[in-house]
Amino acid sequence: MAQPIRVGLVGFGISATVFHAPFFVTMPEFELVAVLERTKNESQKKYPFVKVVRTIEELVDDPTIDLIVITTPNDTHFPYSKAALLAGKHVVVEKPFTNTTAEAKELVDLAALTGKVLSVYQNRRYVSDFLTIRDLLDKKLLGEVHEFEGHYDRYRAEARPQAWREHALPGSGILFDLGAHLLDQVLYLFGLPQAITADIRQQRPHAKVDDYFDIRLNYGFTKVILHAGMLVREPGPRYMIHGTVGSFIKYGEDPQEARLRAGDLPVGDDWGKEAEDTFGLLHTEIDGKLVKERMPSKAGDYSGYYRHIYNTIRLGAPLKEKPEHGYNTVRMIELAFESHTRQCTIPCSDLLDAPYR
Predict the structure, then answer these.
(1) 1 has a pLDDT exceeding 70
(2) Relative to the CA of 279, which of 6, 60, 254, 304 has its CA 20 to 30 Å away?
């Protein structure tokens, strides 16, 4: 194996401790070297071998670090990514890429100019339900898809005062947070849509930012519905997909996040495997025979994202999660807000034609 990638981690909140650090300490392809914490030393309590730094400048100026991973609030994504690229570092940034497409485009161009890898951490491409759906659509087990509905619903009726995402700040709200996942998945599966219609609301009395959205995307023959809300105590299906010969209905959640939050490390043969009672229902026709049965879910594996990053940086493989993909997600969010404000369907314009496969 080539030399491990030495990582500098920006922030040590939930994103860093749950979605990133566990992979750097279990994957031999990576070495966690330093963590940026403004005032605390929480990372050293868990990982005594890391160096703690206090500023982004100190982190990106470290000549031993290859990759900067940014997990701090959305308003830092642009300046921190820019500083890291200008310092000659590769960069992984949490979703959403940036708060505006102007910022996103500047970073896309800067990555091309510096020749450094810049990628948005789209871990929802590496969950069991999405991997299963991608496989069944690639095999056309439903025929041609005419309706795709995806949900990311929660029940959180009370305010969380310490959560910056619930304050009226750029990049806050449920559309930037959860919508970034759903939009990226749909762009991956179906490409760039023709038009968008969006209804974005503040449903909870205390809400200062959007906590509900319903987005309709027009792909011609295919209609896509994306929905998220914070007042859904009993969730329905997470995905409902209907095609010309069959349907797929999927409940439940990929188990990785819950296990990581509980302190489990992402290792072992059972990692990312769903319980059988959450397998999706496939009702279709195959070779002239009617099929109605539970379809075993593929195992989720967030580490697949970082294996691809390693292969790109060290082995020169094509980048899977391109910065242009991050730009397109931010642009779709902007278009959704525009559609809601104008209360009409609008064309999907100014998207970047970057292959997703």
Answers:
(1) no
(2) 304
